[in-house]
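Suppose you are handed a protein chain with no further information: no name, no annotation, nothing but its sequence. What can you learn? This example shows the usual starting point.
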Amino acid sequence: MQDGVLAILVNLGSAWLAGSLIGLERSFHGRPAGFRTHALVCVASALLMLVTTHQWQWLDASLPEATVRTDPTRMAQGIMTGIGFLGAGVIFKEGLNVHGLTTAASIWMTSALGILFGVGFMMPAVLVTLSTLLTLSLFRWIEQRLPAEYYADHVQSYPISRVPDETAVRRQIGEFGCTIQTMSYRLSEHGTLFHYHMVLQTHDKRNLERLAAYLRHSADNVLEFHLSPAGQ
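A reasonable first move is to predict its three-dimensional structure. Written in structure tokens, the prediction is:
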């Protein structure tokens, strides 16, 4: 009995430590689901798996074994299905930006780790915990240094009496090393304002900063603008 209690404590403790380490990385980068969330998810998953793997410690010993069949794999399926709702809660879209995808993936991974720790599958659980921490930390550094294309959601607004034609707008945007991928048009304020709404592409993020500086200081006929770079 003492060996069984010790094994349960080791499994739960390992799950708590793994979830805490992954959550600590998320908290350090200011993510909404961080230290406490990941620790609780991992421990809860491990605890639910322990309920199925140690069922004869809480079931009535007088019950015939053939009358009770608790399948641990069905419990694991239920855990992973339920954790999807929690992961979906941290994902939101704002313009071209989609936030929370990595955090949702880390919650899903943390739940899977809890299942492994709960059934005592220690070797792969420890290896995947280390690889998850490596992915979240080292891969961020690599990703920031890889060449990439940058996109931005951009709106330029003009008084209806001073609206430049589309060719002039495209030429102006091109002078700052940006390409217009899509463009749409909108009237507002009872027809007194005209908006060019476009998605920009560039190979250097500083081009977007230069464009914003120009529109802020030198573009006399632009009443207002909105420039929102895409990225998680």
